[in-house]
Amino acid sequence: MSTRWYPIYQKGNPQLRVFLPNFWMKIVRPQVKQPANMVKFITSVQMTDYDIKNYLEKIYKVPVANVRSEIVEGELKRSKLGYIIKDDDYRAAYITLKKGETFKFPDICEEKQKKDESDFKKAQEQAKVSYEAFTSRNKKRPGVPGWFSF
Amino acid sequence: MQFFDEKDNWERDEVRVGRAWRIPELRIKSNDDLHKLWFVLLKERNMLMTMEHEYKQKFEPFPSPERLDKVNESMVNLEEVVRERNRAYFELETGETGERPGRLTPNALGMNYWYKASEHVVPPHANGTWWRQKHLWYDRKECAQFLTYYREKLFLAKRKQRIRDRNHVLGLLRRFPDMDMEALKEQYPTVDIERVKRWKKATGHFVPK
């Protein structure tokens, strides 16, 4: 089983059980505004809609009402040297949560950006103060370069 | 949703974490524990992938990206341990490894590759489509020609390497005549050092002892 090689399914056989699933899923911010109970995922291409539903319900205990998914072709790019690069294909899945459930994508980078901005401003002010201290040494001798005095 | 990291880690530049699970540590765990650990790792990987994607979208650096590598390494190790147990069980019960069967077969260019066998609904003798797609008509003569050229290329590369090694050893012998011969032999096993030592190129511009 752990070799990831499963016997072929014949009608009447017991359902295949996956003991160590290696499927991956990630929540992404949808490009177009979605209703509050809709979540966009990017998943591995091999997953089916049933797999996605079971994965979310069994592993994450998320109540899923509906799953809709499609395979999105990876972007084709041309490198500077002229050859063509293609990104990996992925499956985009749109999940509707059950009644009463809502989801809002958290602002993860916003606080960090704010903090970085304030840090930058602090450094700027510090630089301003030190520059003033540097130039004030030659205040009485205008036109003399800063390095002249010691 | 458990797809996101803890809120404290959002604005950090670095998240300090431990190392990956190693194989000997996983060997002493029970099957049940390994099964639980797999899902912990799976969730962690999903979380990290979600965060990485979000940071990438916002043009921000992802804090401690080595976490993903650690989780992946742990998962590979865990799967290796489970596979080991599976193999042991199958060998005990059936005398076979229980791994996916395969064999070496030549492809259309006449080169061998590892064919991974899989189960089919229709047996091969009854599957006309498969016989027609199998391309049994390829030109054996052209294949032989191709393989000759291919082997020549491999041979030339090998010979070039051998000569390069020998010349390097000659230079070493010329510059450092008192070096450790055992170590040299170990590092360059293709060079016959006893033979090469007497060559003119291997002796420096000094009177030999």
From TrEMBL, chain A:
InterPro entries from the UniProt entry: Nucleotide-bd_a/b_plait_sf (IPR012677), Ribosomal_uL23-like (IPR013025), Ribosomal_uL23/eL15/eS24_sf (IPR012678)
Compartments it resides in: Mitochondrion
Domain of life: Eukaryota
Family matches, as Pfam families: Ribosomal_L23
Record carries keyword Ribonucleoprotein: yes
CC terms in the record's Gene Ontology section: mitochondrion; ribonucleoprotein complex; ribosome
Keywords: Mitochondrion, Ribonucleoprotein, Ribosomal protein
Keyword Ion transport among record annotations: no
Quaternary structure and interacting proteins, as annotated: Component of the mitochondrial ribosome large subunit (39S) which comprises a 16S rRNA and about 50 distinct proteins.
Family to which the UniProt record says this protein belongs: Belongs to the universal ribosomal protein uL23 family.
This protein's name: Large ribosomal subunit protein uL23m
Organism: Ranatra chinensis
UniProtKB/TrEMBL annotation, chain B:
The name this protein goes by in its record: Large ribosomal subunit protein uL29m
Main location: mitochondrion
Protein source organism: Ranatra chinensis
Cross-referenced Pfam families: MRP-L47 (PF06984)
Keyword Magnesium: no
Protein keywords: Mitochondrion, Ribonucleoprotein, Ribosomal protein
Gene3D superfamilies: 6.10.330.20
GO CC, alphabetical: mitochondrion; ribonucleoprotein complex; ribosome
InterPro entries xref list: MRP-L47_sf (IPR038340), Ribosomal_uL29_mit (IPR010729)
